[in-house]
Automatic annotation (TrEMBL):
This is 3-keto-alpha-glucoside-1,2-lyase/3-keto-2-hydroxy-glucal hydratase domain-containing protein. Residues 46-276 form the 3-keto-alpha-glucoside-1,2-lyase/3-keto-2-hydroxy-glucal hydratase domain. It comes from the Bacteria. It holds the Pfam family 3keto-disac_hyd. InterPro entries: AL/BT2_dom.
Length: 281
């Protein structure tokens, strides 16, 4: 049948409307999918909130001299959208070092968070805990810890505050309870390695980041600056005490584990705790 100009126009209009409807429905599907991905704690760019700002239902506690799950003295509490570490219900500190663990282990990831030191240090805690806290990672499962185990077998991103005396006191250091790491081409003999960070005095918020690539490479970042790198975390070394020997398998490479926030005598706040999982390659 011979097409007229009118028929040609009607045909073109029909094709245009069809393409428009297809595009519209595609955009609707993409929008719905995006909303679904952002629900349940997910945020832009592949980041996921580990702390929802309201409660610690996805976290659990282990404090020295107490069973797993016992939040002695309400040490870890949520107020004003922050996880607060406090000791106002303690009395004598009695080496009751504690950790708040996220519920699942991780291996390859980028963690970011903010912290600040506040209030008065618990004077019955060991002197080295003044303006001192940390984020533990590649940690043993706290359910494998004995009641009187002081530190989890883990790696620590140590957080320190300036003492206000003008002397440097870097933060974002590495400490190794029950572990070893390779630094500058050799197994490092000391318990801690200082970072190259600036000193942060007072109650200012500091942003910490941790990039963990299994056992291959670990990077510490403070306020956007890379301050420390090392590799090959393994079980070994000392410092941790009271553990079950079957979990202290010296020489075993650590490529995954739990993440925990530390309490050891200094009040500290944490907020904006987020993680992005990375590909293993």
């Amino acid at each position: 049948m011979k097409r007229t100009l009118t028929n040609e126009r009607n045909y073109a209009d029909a094709i245009y409307k069809k393409r428009y409807l297809i595009l519209f429905f595609c955009l609707v599907i993409i929008s719905c999918g995006s909303k679904k991905r952002l629900s349940g704690g997910n945020i832009d760019g592949g980041w996921t909130k580990l702390f929802n700002g309201r409660d610690t239902k996805d976290w659990f506690v282990k404090i020295n001299h107490h069973e797993v799950g016992e939040n002695f003295g309400n040490t870890f509490r949520v107020e004003d959208g922050m996880i607060k570490v406090r000791y106002d219900q303690y009395g004598d500190f009695n080496d009751q070092f504690g950790h708040l663990y996220y519920k699942t282990p991780f291996s390859y990831y980028h963690l970011r968070y903010e912290y600040r030191f506040v209030g008065k240090w618990q004077t019955t805690a060991p002197p080295y805990t003044l303006l001192n806290s940390g984020v533990m990672f590649h940690s043993q499962d706290p359910r494998t810890m004995l009641k009187d185990q002081d530190w989890p077998i883990s790696i620590e991103m140590q957080l320190l505050g300036g003492l206000g005396d003008g002397k440097p006191r870097p933060t974002g250091n590495m400490c190794s309870p029950g572990t070893d790491v390779v630094y500058k081409g050799k197994v490092w003999p000391d318990h801690c390695i200082n970072s190259t960070s600036k000193t942060y005095d007072g109650e200012q918020w500091v942003k910490g980041e941790l990039i963990v690539q299994g056992s291959k490479l670990i990077t510490h970042i403070i306020n956007g600056d890379t301050v420390l790198q090392y590799s090959k975390p393994t079980i070994g070394g000392g410092v941790a005490h009271g553990y079950d020997p079957k979990y202290k398998q010296d020489g075993k490479l650590l490529s995954s584990g739990f993440i925990a926030l530390q309490s050891e005598g200094q009040p500290v706040d944490f907020r904006n705790i987020e993680i992005k999982q990375l590909p293993a390659d």
